[in-house]
Design goal:
206 residues, binds adenosine-5'-triphosphate, seven-stranded parallel sheet, Rossmann fold, binds magnesium ion, 8 helices, alpha/beta
Amino acid sequence: MRAVLVANPKGGAGKTTLATNLSGYFASQGKKTTLCDLDRQQSSLRWMAFRDPALPSITGYYGGNQISLSLPREADWVVVDAPAGLQGYKLSDYLKAVDKVLIPLVPSVFDMAATEDFLNAIRGEVRGVRAKVGIVAMRVDPRTKAAGMLEEFLTHFDIPIVAYVRNTQNYVNVAASGATVFDPPRARHRRDMEQWQSLVQWVEKK
Ligand SMILES: Nc1ncnc2c1ncn2[C@@H]1O[C@H](COP(=O)(O)OP(=O)(O)OP(=O)(O)O)[C@@H](O)[C@H]1O
Ligand SMILES: [Mg+2]
């Protein structure tokens, strides 16, 4: 079993969007995939309830009431969707339980300011931070000024950007039916699946 934590203290950064789509990717590859929802709002589990049983299967559970995070050993991949505001001893516990950490980050001054302490805390706790922690630049085109601003901000933390995810209604539309950009209609999601290539390669790298 390998596990990925998706976390950012800022609300609405794109954690659930990343966690659900990453789960969809693993499931589409025939992997036994479990989504662990740590958020009391349980957005990931609500999403899963809409999922068509004909699509590659993803199992899920609420893990937010555990004192210490314990993940199901029998899965190939566990994707952990963290709540906004995650910090302190819970963050430390979750960091220990997973192989990789993905941090979705929208390149706005508000989002970057709200994430700064979190990135510093992670850097202080994770050894070999570059191999274990990756940023996903959310809702941004890599050729824009906003992307440049994000890259400049991240030079202070030595944490790599592992993918750029564009702003598109595709994510909103698939979410409404418990699907992901790795589910049909794939022709409509071609550009998005391409953008995920670097992300999944980085996550799968041992
Ligand atoms: N790349 C994208 N393009 C368009 N919309 C997006 C994209 N990523 C996320 N969104 C939308 O932004 C909103 C917030 O995303 P999401 O729920 O994934 O964030 P979150 O970090 O899980 O939020 P919370 O902190 O409340 O759990 C959602 O409505 C989602 O559909
Ligand atoms: Mg969420």
